[in-house]
Design a protein that fits this description.
alpha+beta, four-stranded mixed beta sheet, 4 strands
Length: 194
């Protein structure tokens, strides 16, 4: 198992910020990160989804198939590169998450050889399994992202960040959070977003 497993849905802007924080930490601390699915579509199954979110959620679900296909092939670095390309377009450049943006990210990340997974519904089982692992580790009442730390009994949802911190602040935040993974009595720390 990797040092850290980061379960994400590419649609979520809060998750994007947390992922960039973790990239900073991984580089500074030499951590190996496994990139896995957390599906907002699975989380919201059976609920009425507003029309504005349906197409982006469908594009996200397709992207997560590719993430799981890359993971199954031992290509977590490629999954990270794909998410970086996708998130840069959506969360930095402001493009709506769509099939076209997913295709651009596939090409820019150099993972065209695995692109067939985008439309291969057989990967949905792997997406759901990764999602279920994250949810059972950190849930209930959680969303994307979920972080699982090697050796910890439970995962954590978050962190939810208002911006992407620099390297020094990223490491300080990491050092503050790691003990919480190992505390059997820790439940939640939260403040308003105001």
């Amino acid at each position: 198992m990797a040092d850290v497993t980061f379960h994400f849905d590419p649609l979520c802007p809060w998750t994007w910020r947390a992922s960039r924080w973790l990239v900073n930490v991984a580089e500074a601390r030499g951590l190996d990160v496994e990139w896995r699915s957390f599906s907002l579509a699975a989380l919201n199954e059976g609920k009425e989804i507003p029309e504005a979110y349906r197409a982006p959620m469908a594009a996200s679900s397709r992207a997560l198939r590719l993430v799981e296909a890359l993971h199954a092939d031992g290509r977590d670095e490629d999954a990270a590169a794909f998410y970086t390309e996708l998130g840069s377009r959506v969360h930095e450049a402001g493009a709506p998450l769509s099939g076209e943006v997913v295709a651009e990210a596939v090409k820019a990340a150099g993972v065209e050889d695995a692109a067939a997974a985008l439309d291969d519904e057989s990967w949905d089982a792997a997406v759901h399994a990764a999602h279920d692992r994250a949810f059972s580790s950190a849930g209930p009442d959680i969303g994307s992202p979920v972080i699982i730390l090697e050796g910890a009994k439970r995962g954590l949802h978050g962190p939810i960040l208002s911006e992407i911190p620099g390297v020094d602040d990223s490491v300080t935040l990491w050092d503050s959070i790691v003990p919480l993974f190992h505390s059997p009595i820790f439940f939640e720390v939260k403040r308003g977003r105001g």
